[in-house]
């Protein structure tokens, strides 16, 4: 039997379905279907996008488990540098003359 480890991998990294959809450029509906195992097949471009975004190999997401064998445990991995670099952090600048504009918000990528 083929086991889908994507939910465990995403939980270990603290990534939601919506966040993975944003990172991959794959629709929320498709990512949700892959996450919940609602599809009997996954297009290679979707799998490729997930692997690139999470810095994984396809075998990290799907594993073969012989009948009667226990479900494999996923290895806890920190968020990949690729996905972390795509996060935009906003912070309120506390100065009298904000550099970015009159509202005081500065955006870094």
Helix-strand sequence: EHHHHHEHEE
How far apart the termini lie comes to 42 Å
Kindly report the spatial arrangement of strands forming the biggest sheet.
1-2
- Based on CA inertia axes, which overall geometry fits? globular
Given helix and strand content, the structural type is alpha+beta
Explain what the structure shows.
The chain has 6 helices and 4 strands, in the order E-H-H-H-H-H-E-H-E-E. It is an alpha+beta fold. It has a single domain (2-108), classed as lambda repressor-like DNA-binding domains (434 Repressor (Amino-terminal Domain)), CATH 1.10.260. The strands form 2 sheets. A two-stranded antiparallel ribbon has the order 1-2. Strands 3-4 form a two-stranded antiparallel ribbon. Helix 2 crosses helix 3 (28-35). Residues 78-95 have low confidence and may be disordered.
Tag the structure with descriptive keywords.
single chain; 109 residues; alpha+beta; 434 Repressor (Amino-terminal Domain); two-stranded antiparallel sheet; 13% strand
Could you give the topology of this structure?
Blueprint: E1 2-4, H1 6-13, H2 17-24, H3 28-35, H4 44-54, H5 58-61, E2 62-64, H6 81-85, E3 89-92, E4 105-108
Antiparallel strand pairs: 1-2, 3-4
Helix pairs in contact: 2-3
Produce a short descriptive summary:
By secondary structure, the protein is of the alpha+beta class.
């Amino acid at each position: 039997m083929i086991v889908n480890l994507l939910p465990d991998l995403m939980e270990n990294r603290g990534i939601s379905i919506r966040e993975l959809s944003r990172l991959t450029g794959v629709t929320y509906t498709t990512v949700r279907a892959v996450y919940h195992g609602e599809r009997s097949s996954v297009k290679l471009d979707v799998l490729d996008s997930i692997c690139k975004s999470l810095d994984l190999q396809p075998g990290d997401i799907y594993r073969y488990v012989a009948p009667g064998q226990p479900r494999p445990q996923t290895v806890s991995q920190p968020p990949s540098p690729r996905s972390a670099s795509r996060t935009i952090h906003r912070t309120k600048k506390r100065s009298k003359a904000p550099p970015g504009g009159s509202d005081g918000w500065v955006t870094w990528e």
